[in-house]
Amino acid sequence: MRVLANIVVSVVARVEVPAAIWRKHRIGELTPSDASILTWAFEWDWFGDKEHDPVFAVVALTDDILEAAAQAAAVHGLRAYDAIQLSSAVAARAADPDLDRFACFDEDLTAAARIEGFHPLDA
Predict the structure, then answer these.
(1) Is 46 helix (H, G, I), strand (E, B) or coil?
(2) Gap between the Cα atoms of 103 and 110, Å rounded
(3) Angle separating helix axes 13-26 and 32-47, nearest 10 degrees
(4) Measured between alpha carbons, how far is 65 from 53 in angstroms, rounded to an integer?
(5) What is the tens place of the pLDDT at every residue in 89-103?
(6) Model pTM?
(7) 10: buried, middle or exposed (CB in 10 Å: 19+, 13-18, 0-12)?
(8) CB-based contact 114:120 (threshold 8 Å)
(9) Is 9 helix (H, G, I), strand (E, B) or coil?
(10) How far apart are CA 4 and CA 11, in angstroms?
(11) What are the start-end ranges of the H helices in 1-123?
């Protein structure tokens, strides 16, 4: 199993991930129990607890990231949250050039990330 040293996400993931989990439940791909467990696990990773730090480094939503997201939506044809995720990754990479991997389940977002110089996590 690969252990990730740095997992950087946009602050919008706080809404996007639970929404995706519960959507999977609504369309019958997850039981209510599974959706609850996955949501709980994500929130534990997000917040941590008294003994464990959060798993994620969170990129705040700034005016610069919103502007870059608006441009990414136009250039790459991305949905709003996807454009924010990509522009957040670009901002994180500007702060730490070693952050060159990008993970997602959306083909359009993965293609846009490749164009922006990221490597898919599984590559």
Answers:
(1) helix
(2) 7
(3) 170
(4) 25
(5) 999 999 999 999 999
(6) 0.85
(7) buried
(8) yes
(9) strand
(10) 19
(11) 13-26, 32-47, 63-76, 80-95, 107-115
User: Which phi-psi region, left, alpha or beta, contains residue 10 (left: φ > 0; alpha: ψ -120 to 50)?
Assistant: beta
Hey, what amino acid is at 70?
A
Backbone phi, then psi, for 48, in 5-degree steps? 70, -165
Distances (CA, A) of 98 to 31, 72, 84, 90: 38, 22, 20, 12
* pLDDT for position 6: 66
| CATH number 3.40.50.1010 is the correct assignment for the domain at 7-120 | yes
Residue 109 in contact with residue 86, Cβ under 8 Å?
Answer: yes
